[in-house]
């Protein structure tokens, strides 16, 4: 019988990354309840929209959403702080709004003067770190640029820390890849079959195993990965 595959096994198999940990910035706490999310509205049209759900979900709990395409469309951080000084602020993953040429992301989403946040120790600042393995030095500098107090991440803290050693593990706030409940069809015993969807690679061993043994499954449909784009979310209810 195979031994259970644990988080420690995953971490041990990951490469070592030579980037030092960010020093914890000062925080003095501020009065008031204003909360802001510097967000990217076009993420609703990305291949999957879980990142937009994070933005919109916090928006429904009282965070004011700032960014191109929102009611509060300001993208200059200095002006945002003058207009609405928040005590808690979340900055979307920098690679989502500082767009490289040829990338599918929306270049108009760029925020300006984000370094101003480093001068405000009374604001509790978090940034989103989605794919922890990507560009570790870039993301370390992004966190240091604003003196981030924490990171919102999607994966187990120990795997994030291994791939992004600049984070402080105790200052990780974990969320999940979510799906809009309204898009999930109700259970029906008449609905038959299996759907395999998403990227298939060594990063997803269960998906790869199912694909390799597809002939053993009854009524298995494989939905290929649609690629990365912002032409509308591919998250949608099953219709068959």
Number of strands: 8
Q: How many helical elements? A: 6
The mean pLDDT is: 90
Strand content: 5-15%
CATH class of the largest domain: Alpha Beta
Oligomer designation: single chain
SSE succession: HEHEHEEHEHEEHE
Please give the CATH architecture of the largest domain.
Answer: 3-Layer(aba) Sandwich
Q: Could you list the spans in which at least 5 consecutive residues all have pLDDT below 50?
A: none
What's the overall geometry?
globular
The separation of the N and C termini measures: 38 Å
Total number of domains: 2
Q: Might you state the CATH topology name of the largest domain?
A: Rossmann fold
Helix fraction? Answer: 10-25%
Q: Your description of this structure?
A:
The protein is an alpha/beta fold and 240 residues long. It folds into 2 domains: 160 residues, Rossmann fold (3-Layer(aba) Sandwich), CATH 3.40.50; 52 residues, no CATH class. Helices cover 21% and strands 13% of the residues. It has 6 helices and 8 strands. The strands form 2 sheets. A 6-stranded parallel beta sheet has the order 2-1-3-4-5-6, with helices on both faces. A two-stranded parallel ribbon has the order 7-8. Strand 5, helix 5 and strand 6 form a beta-alpha-beta unit. The radius of gyration is 20 Å and the shape is globular. The model has no long low-confidence stretch (mean pLDDT 90).
